[in-house]
Batch of 4 targets.
Target 1
Amino acid sequence: MNPTRQQPQYLDLLLLTYRDAFAAGSDQSGRRSWWYIVGLMLLVAFFFSLVMLVTSPQAMAVDLGQLEDLTGGVVPVVMFEGHDTFTNEYVYSVKVINQTGDPLVAGTLFLVLSEVLDLSGKDVLGSLEVPNQEGTIGGKPYFVIPAGGLSELPSYQEGQPINVRLRSPDYVIFYPPSFRVIGVRRRATQSLETLIRQLTDKGVLSEAEAQEALRPLQRLSE
């Protein structure tokens, strides 16, 4: 036994297990088993892509047309938490209250830092550092609004608080920041259902696969 021989990887084991399906004279059941596993792996990859489409901030940052401006219906409540005089860093706690009348899909809600005014009324957001931002949407820092592990933020409920840190390298004094909220109402998931139906009509998905893909959306509407 060669002690330096590497252990076979998962894909190697999979190929070794089902190599008889491709050997000469192998029966049709072996081939069907192989293609079943390949199809299952592709289906899992498809589901993962759907989850990324719905929940990924990066994906949402690319296509803002899929997000609705919920500002006014979803009200940010900003509370001052503290100030570090050495770094001139201000800390705010921000929570949002859903007053839209519709549940909002968790993972698609973003708190966007829209402007920060100094004492003269000038927007100084561009000169500030936001150390804990999760990315940018339209050039503005954003934070994902947590829903406490729920699949949606129900109507007339509030999300969990978010800490927003603003640092001024030039030691500029400014007013509390202003925020916008963008996201997806539960009813907007119908566009994703339409996409799945189109893939089914084109033969990309079977009816059973389409039903499986639609199941998470159906749970949201219950």
Target 2
Amino acid sequence: MTGRRDATPRLAIAAKPVLAHPGHDGASRDLLTTAERQRLAPIASLVRVERGATLFRQGAEAAAIYDIADGVLKSTVLRPDGTRAILGFFFPQDIVGLAENGLYVTTVQAVTAGVLYRMPLPALERLLKRDSELDHQFLIKACHELRRAQLHELTLGIAHADIRVARFLDLMRQMQPNPAASSLIDLPMSRADIAEYLGLTPETVSRAFARLRRTLAIACPNPHLVRVLDEERFRAMAEAGTIPPPARQAGTADRPPRSPRPAARLPVAPHGAVVPAMQHQPGEQAEHREDRRAGDGE
């Protein structure tokens, strides 16, 4: 009989490559040794959060930092004009709760249900003062989070919405456990969250996804999953910032050209009769809608 596996997630802090160079396996590097995790364990308590729950709010007194064992969180900030912006998404082995002058600088909410390790700041500060190596590892992790924030700012500076979305997809791919081994990208967040993170409207994000699908670089089996179909095209968008032209569907080059549709003859009504307005067929209405969508590039 096999032994029962412990379902309790381990306390772990890792560094993940952000937009890794070609050839990198994309795997995260655990910053904590087993001994360091054991030293952290006595001050850490397990916390479970439901989807949509608020972990802490911007401006509140910072009481603890959290190591994500499972689930996805988002960090938001309230602008002076009252609007909200998403600054980042956080994944397992990320830490959240860094503060300034004793106050949280962002609001953190759960995108999915999650499991976190809560470490009270006073106890953590005492531990880090005694353990210089552990303090160094936390500093490395903070630098990785700063680098991710800088890349977010660079993404917001890109004018083309399609490139912003492609780079976001690449970032989400690298946050997965084994990004180099899978063509699938999980998107636990909504299109509205993606739009808020990228500084776009939800409609613009939806149109960008549609245009990227027409290049045949990606497919979207459902709203929370993206499949990379053509790695070269995807890399051209995410890294080089170039948009390939829409790909022609297989077999379209061999199709004979369609003969022009004869002009419709309008009925001539008898004098004094009322002619009803012409009704478009459902297929024609769909074509008009598609033409408007295809021509609406932002």
Target 3
Amino acid sequence: MAHVLMLALLGSWGVVLAAQRQTPPPSAEQINFNDCVKGLSGCDVSALNPRQNQQVSEASRKRNLDHCMEGSTVCDPTRLTTSEAASVQASRYRRNLEKCQEGSASCDPLLLTPKDAPSVRANAAQRNYDKCLSGSAACDPLKLTAQQNKTVQAAALRRNLDRCKEGSPACDPLQLTASEAAATQAAAFERNRERCLNLSPACDPVALTESDAKIMRTAFQRRNLANCQEGLASCQPLELSEADLNAAKEAFHQRNVESCKRGLPACDPSLLTGPELALVGTAFQQRRARSNRPQPPKP
């Protein structure tokens, strides 16, 4: 059974190969005809027979009609029939109407019919109204109705109030009502309070209440003490209380002992006590013993 199947497959393959061998390559006449049908520059129309000439002419008219329907610059309207010219004109009108409805700069309003012009104007008015509502610089307030103008002004006032509450430099305080100005001042006070409590350089301590200023001073003292205990350059020792200064000195003393025990350049041996000197000596001997210890041979 397998032998029979193999013979069948080989026979089918042989038929395919024979068919491929029997397919002749296209002649020069056929190649020229194909080029002419496609409108290629290599076409030689003098070599066409009457039937081919008719087919090439039909293909050329079809390409021209497609170009005209698409609004291409290579369209030749003089080759169109009456019905084709009507279709092309309708297609051109639809394209222009879509551009006008979308507000395209390439819209030609003179081509619009009285039936479509009102909807185009309504769409343009709506687009302008939307721009004015969003505060766009492209807004034309002269094209707004009285009611639209009132709504746009209300939206502009809301945007200004939001900017003022956020502390934006674009805020216009002259447009605020008394209650809005109070709300803006409260928001500014709260922002400054947060900056001060976070010890931000943008803090204005003068604008704080007495209780907030006290909280800020406490937070500053805690951070300054931490900076001094860690030996940071931002430490301000003159701002420390006597108890905090002693705590900072003790922290410095402990750091100095550790630096001496580790043999660091920051060590100041003049500040060490007798027991601390002994600890430093012990640490030095331990380091030297570890460095002199023979290393095990590598495998």
Target 4
Amino acid sequence: MNMLLSSVFLLVALSLAAPAVALQVNETAPPISLRDSNNDFFYLSNYVNAPQPPLKIRGGKGELDKVKGIIVNFFSSTCKPCKNELPVLNSLVDEFEKKSIKVVIIGYKENFDKFIDMLDELKVDKPIILADPYGKAGEKYGVYGLPLTVFIGADGKVKDIIKGELPNIGKVLREKAKKLLK
């Protein structure tokens, strides 16, 4: 009986720890609507054709900042692999901007006060910086380990996903970003 209870407890714990459905390549990217470091809302649909709550129109002229793709990276200030990866992402922002690709980093389950000093220390200042203090966006993206990087095409579809830290991350990011240009 004790063994049976232990097994049931383990299965329940595992089901609660892992996301119900992990995000897959070729699926429509879940909506993102989070505040940036200026306390303005960022909407994914302002950049790609993704389902989203009402759009925030820039400059009141009805212009949206559509791009060829977005690279979304979930991180945490306590994640050592994230601290290794964020400066590399930062160094690629200008190169990607020339190709009309935006880089967005999201502090997963943290407020700005938890991670902004770490970003300053790492000199990470070029990506769009968002906070997901309750983990709701991360949950939709199937975050269960960090870092998690998702490549979203202009059509709003997930083109690729990187889970965890990789060696030669700069090279890998460039290769996977090419999928956004097709």
